[in-house]
Structure formats: C-alpha cells, structure tokens
Design brief:
2 copies of one chain form a homodimer.
Chain A lengths: L7 H16 L6 H7 L4 H7 L12 H13 L6 H13 L7 H12 L2 H24 L6 H21 L7 H15 L18 H4 L17
Chain A binds a DNA duplex (30 and 30 nucleotides) through α3.
DNA sequence: TACAGTGATGTCTGTCGCTGACATCAGTCA
DNA sequence: TGACTGATGTCAGCGACAGACATCACTGTA
C-alpha cells in the first residue's frame, strides 16, 4: 500500500476551487481545504506559497506558450504582428472544452479583490516576460513594453469576452477581433479579418482620424 | 490642551514610508508604525484598511483628475485624443518638485511584490473608471476599455520613465512621447511630435499596412 | 452650568495566514 | 541491512486584521 495518495497538489487545487465557489474565498480557510483532501494546513502551504496561489499555480506553461508564440513569429514581423502570433499561440491553452471551467474560476476571482490583485500581477508578469522576448528580437524601449502590455490587454479583454455567458466564438477569433479593434482605435486597420464596429460610436469617431503620413521617422527624443 | 495631535493619517503615512524605506516593508509591523507616531496598532487599522493601503491612500484626487481630463476633452475628439487629454490632466498631480518623493515611494513599492500587486490593482481601477467615462461619451466596447487600458499603460510607462534617475523631461512631455510611440507601433502617427522608431522592426512591417486614407497633417491631439 | 452626545482613540481578545524546527515513516538504493 | 530521501504531520509562534467595549476631550443644548 502507498503511504500517500498521489497528486496532492491537484487535489488541493480542485478542492480549493470548489470550496471558494461555494463558501467564498475569505470564508474558506487553508486548513479546511487541506482537511477536505486529507492533508494538513502545513502541507497546503508547502505546495502553495500562499492561499491565493492555489488558483494560479500552473500558469507557467501558458506563459511559455505566449513566449513561444513570440519566438515563432517570422523574423521580419512588426511588434504587433509578433504579438498577434503570441496571442494565437497562447489561445491553444483555452480550447472550448475548458470554457466552463474557466468561467467558474473567473467568477471566484471576480468576487474577491485579493484574487484580482494576484491575477493582475500574473498578467503584468506576462507582459514583462513578453517584453523581454521582444527585446531579444531587437525591439527597443518603450516599443517592446508598449507592445507587450497591449498584448496583455488584448488577451485580457478577449478572455473576458470568451468567458461571457452566451459567447460562442473561439478565443483566437475573439483575440483577433479585439486586436483589430485596437488597430482601428489607433487609426490603422489591417488585412484579413475586419471587425464590425462593436457598438455605437466604436467606428464612427475613429474613422475620421487623419492618417499619419508615415513620415521619415527620425529625431528620437533624448530619453531613448 | 488638545487630546489628540491632528493629522493622524498623514503622520502614519509619513512614518510608514520612512520605515518601509529603511527597514523594508515586511520587516516593519503595523504596530511599529503606529507606535512611532504615538498611536496604537488598532488605530492604524482604523485609518487604513490594510498595511499596504498606507502607501496608496489619497489617490482619489489623481483618479478624479484623470476623469476630469476625459470630461474636458472636446466632444468630437477620438477616444485616443480623449485619453491624451486625460493624461495631460493627470500629470498635473506630478510637478517636478514631487519627483524625489515619487522616486522614493516607488523604490519601496518596487521592492515588494505585495505592494506591486496593490499598485496594479489601483491602476486597473483607474482604467475601469476611465472606461466608464468613455462610455458616457458614447464610446462602445471594446473600444472604451481598450482605450482606457492603453491610457493606463502609457501613464505607467511614462511615470516609470519620469522617475528614472537622470530623467529631466516633465511628465506631460514623456507621456506625449510614449503616446506617440504607441501610435507609431500600431502604424498611425499623428501631428506634431514624432518619435523615432525605437529600434529595428518598429516601422518596418507596419508601414506596409494599408494606410488609412491620410488626411492633412492637421489637428494635433488636443491634449496639449 | 450641567449634561448628554460624538468621535478619535486605547484595550482586550480572538481568528487566520503563514513559517521554522523537528519528527515520522514508506520506499529506494548502495 | 542500513543509510538516505521525500512527502507528510506536529508544535509553537509571529503578525495582520477585526469585533466589542471603554475612555475622554470637545461640542452643542437645555
């Protein structure tokens, strides 16, 4: 006979999500989570650095997928095209089967500021990492950070939409729409998929922007 | 004689920053902060909902300035022009005299993940509020959120640069540069201040996007 | 002038997140 | 067979925070 049931970490994660969903995050103690799967509080904290982390552990691979997407982009791609690649690559982590689970998890997070803070922190870490990958492609600052943060923003908005009740489109499709909307916003629209103006003024005011003569870009500001 | 020294909250804030800077955030207990200004731990927590909040309390006015900037934008301004207005309005909270203080405060935050989380949460709250203000102008989703998040990103990057040792430009100037860099990135650059492509690919692929029918190089963003 | 609020504070006590130190014990491997 | 390892349990303690209640200068009012 085995001394310990295997997969302690996964069992703790599942139990935690379940308890958080039913009782609420703050009303659930770490000791309760541990007990519910036959472990002790001490063991819980050996697996997770803190109580919130039980909901966030394992995003390493997601982050890696994002970075892989960056690295897989063609060498002559513009920063935003690189981001588009990364977004598509990352979306592979969220097949439609996972939608219900993601929805449940997110509803727990949405109900607790402490969890929201952790989520934002993770997303910021993603942006930082992606910015690093962009640096490695020779992209400077602040372009790299700007592009990375924009990517994170697009992902966040697209994910939130993907989760929304009644939404049928796949995550990559939504990502693509949101990214195009971003280009729309800033006055440049591109290529294949065109986004319908999502609501009222979305496309109206935007479209009357004078477009920038993509002039000879010289004379950088001193800061960099 | 008075029973209590006035300005308990401000005294706590000042003492906290001082102690955090010297001993570190985690090495400083709430009780110590309180004692250092002749108060008790209990009183500390009556003024601040949690230990981190002592560094963030009072940003209400900053947020309000941002929103006021949105509301003050001309009615026919594009979302990004509105954001430009808001950025300029918000910058009034950070005159050059405040740079040293901001730098110190930020160095404390940068050294502690818990504080970074709170900062990100506040910034996200800003974006949410601004998105609401954009809705009120008739801008739909996801344009409003996209614009608001972009504004928050630009502010964050600009602020970080403003704080940087050796930086001399004013915050509004940096904001303007970063915002233009964002437009550059997405292929649209506008009006007056042109930013050089930050490095290699910045302008390459982008420039072959079908340029949105270029208008006269008129109308600089109203923000400045 | 007495006196009942009011509000900022202190005191006491308790819960929970989290940690260090140490013990346990099934399985592994020399 | 015996040392070693790794996942776990036990114990004790710190610090963040919250509820309940007491205190007491100050204020307005009768």
């Amino acid at each position: 006979m085995v001394r310990w049931e295997p997969g302690a970490k996964e069992r703790l994660q599942a139990a935690a999500l379940e308890l958080f969903a039913t009782r609420g995050f703050e009303q659930t103690t770490a000791a309760e989570i541990a007990q519910s799967v036959g472990l002790t509080e001490r063991t819980f904290f050996r697996h997770f650095s803190d109580k919130r982390e039980v909901l966030f552990y394992g995003q390493q691979q997601f982050l890696q997928a994002f970075v892989d997407g960056v690295d897989a982009a063609p060498p002559d791609a513009s920063p935003l095209e690189v981001i588009a690649c990364a977004l598509q690559a990352a979306a592979s982590f969220f097949p439609d089967e996972r939608r219900a689970y993601s929805r449940m998890r997110q509803s727990v997070i949405d109900q607790n500021p402490a969890l929201q803070e952790r989520e934002l922190h993770k997303l910021a870490g993603l942006a930082t990492t992606v910015a690093g990958a962009l640096h490695a492609r020779g992209i400077g600052e602040p372009a790299a950070t700007l592009a990375a943060e924009s990517g994170a923003t697009v992902f966040g908005i697209a994910f939130a939409q993907w989760i929304r009740e009644g939404e049928r489109r796949s995550l990559p499709d939504i990502e693509s729409d949101v990214l195009h909307e971003l280009l729309n916003l800033t006055g440049a629209a591109t290529g294949t998929r065109r986004t319908a103006p999502s609501r009222v003024a979305a496309g109206s005011r935007i479209s009357d922007r004078r477009a920038p003569a993509a002039g000879p870009p010289e004379a950088a500001p001193p800061g960099r």
